[in-house]
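Encode chain A's predicted structure.
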Amino acid sequence: MTDMRRFIERMPKAELHVHVEGTLEPEMKFDLARRNDIALPYRSAEEMRAAYDFDDLPSFLKMYYEGMGVLQAEQDFYDLTTAYLTKAHSQNVVYAEMFFDPQAHTTRGIDYDTVIRGIRRAQVDAQDRLGIRTQLIMCFLRDMSADSAMATLEQSLPYRDWLVGVGLDSDEKGNPPIKFKAVFDRARAEGYGLTMHCDVDQENSTRHIWQTLEDIGVDRIDHGVNSLEDEALCDEIVQRGLALTVCPISNKCITGSLKAVEIRRMLEKGMRATVNSDDPAYFLGYVQENLVATQKEADLSRDQVVRLAANAFEASWLPAEEQRGLLSRLESYVASEAGA
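Encoded structure for chain A:
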C-alpha cells in the first residue's frame, strides 16, 4: 500500500453525492428478491454485476430503475440504508448527505411514508451504533413532469424535519433546470437547501449550469464538470462559493474519463470541488475508491487531497458549529500524519 493510499483510507471524510438506491449491491438485490418473492433475470450476483456495462446516462438509468423493484417494504429501505452507512463508516466517512428518489417508488405503488421511514430509521440507528452523522436530500426525477415534482414536494412537508434539501436527477436530455423553477421556488420558501444535477458531457451542459445559477439560485451543483468550458461560469461559481459534487468513477463509466485532471483544474481555480461516489453499487467504487483513483490519475498532492476533504465538510448543509468540529477532526488527523 502506498503512503498516499493509506493517508486517504484513514482520513475522515464527508460524502455529499450518493444515491441511496444506487448503493443496492447485487447480493442484497437477491436477498430482497427472495424476501419479496420477486424473480430476477440473473442466475447470480456475479452475472448481474457483469451486466453493468453502461456507456451513457440512459443505459445506466434503465438498469438503476429496474433494480429498485426489489424494494417493497419499510424494512427493505432500512436494510439498504444500513448497508451503505456500514460501508461508509468502514471507509472513515463521518458525515454523509444521501439522495433518495421517492417518485421512483411511489409510481410503482410504494407509499412515500414507507420509503422515508425505512431510511430515517436506519439513519438514527447508524448514528447511535456507528457515530456516522447523516442528512437526507429528496430528489425529483427530471424526466417526469413539474406537476409530479410539486406533488412530491407537498408529500414531503409532513416529514420536513427529516429532510435537509431537495435535488434534481435522472435523464437531463430535454429536461433543463428551468422546467422545475416553480418547484424549487416553493422548496426554497419551505426552507430546503437547493441542489441540482448538471450531468457530465450532456447536451447544453453549460447552459443548464447557468440556469441553476441565474434562474434557480442553487446552493450547490451536483457534477458540474462542464463548467470548465466557460471561464465566466467558473468565475461566477467561485464568486458565489458554490461547491461541485464530482463523481469520478461514475464519470468514467458514463463518459470514459474520470475527469480527474478536471478536478485538479477546479482546485487550481479555487473552485470548491468535492469527490463522491454517486451510485457505488453500479459503478463499483465507494468514496474511498473515488478519492484514490482521482489522486492517482491527477497526481494530486497531499494538500490537494486534504482540500477536497475540507471542501466537502465546508459545503455540507450542517450547522456552522458542526462543520467546525468536523474540520477540526480533519486538521487533527493531518497534523498527526505529519508527525508520524
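The CA atoms of residues 142 and 175 lie 6 Å apart.
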